[in-house]
Amino acid sequence: MTNRHLNIFITVCNEGSMTRxxxxxxxxxxxxxxxxxxxxxxxxxxxxxxxxxxIFVTDAGRNLYEYASHIVSLYVKAEDSLKRNGLRKNxxxxxxxxxxxxxxxxxxxxxRALYTDAKVxxxxxxxxxLVKMIRKGELDFALTEEVNHEFDLVQRAFxxxxxxxxxxxxxxxxNHNKITVEDIIKEDLLLREKGAGVRNLFEAKMSDWGxxxxxxxxxxxxxxxxxxxxxxxxxxxxxxxxVQQELAAGTLKExxxxxxxxxxxxxxxxxxxxxLTDYMQDFVNLCYK
Length: 289
Known about the structure:
By secondary structure, the protein is α/β, with parallel strands linked by helices. About 45% of the residues lie in helices and about 20% in strands.
């Protein structure tokens, strides 16, 4: 199968429609349909179910989409590397909120000191979305918390991080002599949205103790959660790096919980088939300094 077939297939998946894919590719709808039929015939699988004039990607289609996205991305990168050699120093890096707020600036400054003409594009998002971008070839790599062990991803630890539970110094939780996990779960919780690494780690730890997690606040904004905690609306669960100033100023106080370890590692994550250029490796090496 050709790169053309894979491009058409990816566009149909993204658009959810043969007609919209044809319009986007400046092709006729029958030509798009024929390309999909050729793919299905070649692999002897059904890539789409056609129900009530709508198409739905099959399991086989989803499997091909993952590989096709990566193959097309590699093809584009090969052309870019050969035809536009100077742009090889440019990087597309995904980072989680902790790295984006605290760590990434130093890495970029040091990389630009090595390559003054380099451009580094940064995408700040939760780890689950960064992984999707890696699989689509939209990122060279990501700096984020450890993700579930996936066969197609390589992960290398570069930074030790710690999640903390914080509250207003006036919160009644500090009346306990020793604070337990059971004490925590009874309080109003202020958490990041589902899919965020901080939320995933906290929920996993609570699950180990047999407790479900039902926050009263959920937010993509660390600032919103910090302000809610400072105003004594509950206990916020956040990376230490993002609340250090508030802890130092005394507007927040760490809730130390007996037998609860919320340490984590930040990882360099990339696709196992990703070719790390010397320039990419130079940036990664800066993260280990």
